[in-house]
Amino acid sequence: MPQVLSTILYILLFIVCLSILIMIHELGHFTAAKIFKVYVMEYSIGFGPALIHRKRKTGETYFSLRIIPFGGYVSMYGEGVELPEGQEIDPNRSLENAKKWKRAIILAAGVTMNAILALNLFFIYNVACSSKQLYLRNMSITEGSKADIAGLKTLDVIALDEEVAQKDDWYVKDINNYYLVDSAATVKYTNSSTETVYAFIDTTDIKNFKDIQMNRFITLFKGNGATEGLKVDYKNQVPYNENFVSVTIDFKTVTKFDEKNEKGIEFESHPVEINRTSEGGLEDFGYSLYLQVNKPLPFFKAIGQSFVDFGESSLIIFKAIGTMFTKETWNAMGGIVAIGFESTSVLQNLGIGKYIYLWGALSVNLAIVNLLPFPGLDGYQLLVLAIESITKKKIPNKVKTIVSIVGLGLLFTFMIVLVVKDVITYLI
């Protein structure tokens, strides 16, 4: 029951945080429209049937909370929305009749608010939160341990061959959390026989930072296809039973980097023999995953770092957009379900600080995506406004409506495809 309750709370927290991002975005449009006296009929968080649909007795705008929380809108007079029957509004309060520079500010206000929100979240993270970052590729070595005797040192970078885990024909749930350490580890058995296996770091069980000794996260898989060399068989895990004596894993540490792609190009070999314990696991051999703790920054440094974080988040998003149709980006891309799972994982494993930082990055994401000149997004409306301003000709409303409907249809189709992809990845 506690597990079910915590899951429900994580889902609710995710919905609240996502709604805040949407609410802030739409609040930008709403506030700018009100400043320029444009008539706003509805401010809505969510789509579909309304759970709440109210306005003040002296007000003119309905405030709505709708059943599907993954979106929102501000409905303004003059953007293709019909007024209620019998209601008359001064045409000067139409968005279409507002001066073009005012319309531009109204259209850009949403992404501006998301940018401001992101900077504030980054600032809170930098000035108030101690953050913890777990590094799979870096190690922390205990003096006098087997790992130390083998020549491993704290902050050494281990060579992880993730491509083998990703490209193998076999597939199991959560395989993205398996990282190859040694493709030729040697297992010894009580009858003196040996077997060559694959040794992986399995991060699916990392829930906190209380016990991060490497021995807890080593998983061994057998290989098949002897004539073609070893090939990982993820369905055939090596058990640490009474016949299992030890495993010798060759931890390769990177001694030189290719700065262009950040991959190690020279390695040192450090074989370590790890015995089975009486409890049926592997012994602690003195190698822990490296945990870096960052203290909060002073006020003015936190401000500067917040802009750096904003810039770095923007570059990541622009790079993703530029490579959207490549296999690598598509495999890494996720929709609303993926965001929910990954944000919850960040909160559980990295704490509230990184959770705040993540939502800052998501706010940057929302701002930049909305600036894309695609029908249905703010960037498209700004593009139309720019074209009309340059040509001095108004694009027919019918044309704009058709293009917007087609664009929104494509956007919703893309979102559904991502949801299906997420469900297959995270839930099946």
Descriptive terms for the model:
six-stranded antiparallel beta sheet; alpha+beta; 9 helices; 43% helix; 428 residues; 2 domains
Question: Can you tell me about this structure?
Answer:
- This protein is α+β, with helices and mostly antiparallel strands.
- The chain folds into two domains: 2-128 and 335-426, no CATH class; 133-293, no CATH class.
- The protein has nine helices and ten strands.
- The strands form three sheets. A six-stranded antiparallel β-sheet has the order 7-6-5-4-8-9.
- Strand 6 (218-224) and strand 7 form a beta hairpin.
- Helix 2 runs antiparallel to helix 8.
- The longest helix has 35 residues, at 336-370.
- It is elongated.
- It starts with a helix and ends with a helix.
- Mean pLDDT is 84; it is low at 167-174.
Lay out the secondary structure:
Layout: H1 2-35, E1 40-54, E2 62-76, H2 100-128, E3 131-141, H3 146-149, H4 162-167, E4 178-189, E5 194-202, E6 218-224, E7 231-237, E8 244-258, E9 263-275, E10 287-294, H5 299-322, H6 327-332, H7 336-370, H8 378-391, H9 397-426
Antiparallel strand pairs: 1-2, 3-10, 4-5, 4-8, 5-6, 6-7, 8-9
Helix pairs in contact: 1-2, 1-7, 2-5, 2-7, 2-8, 5-7, 7-9
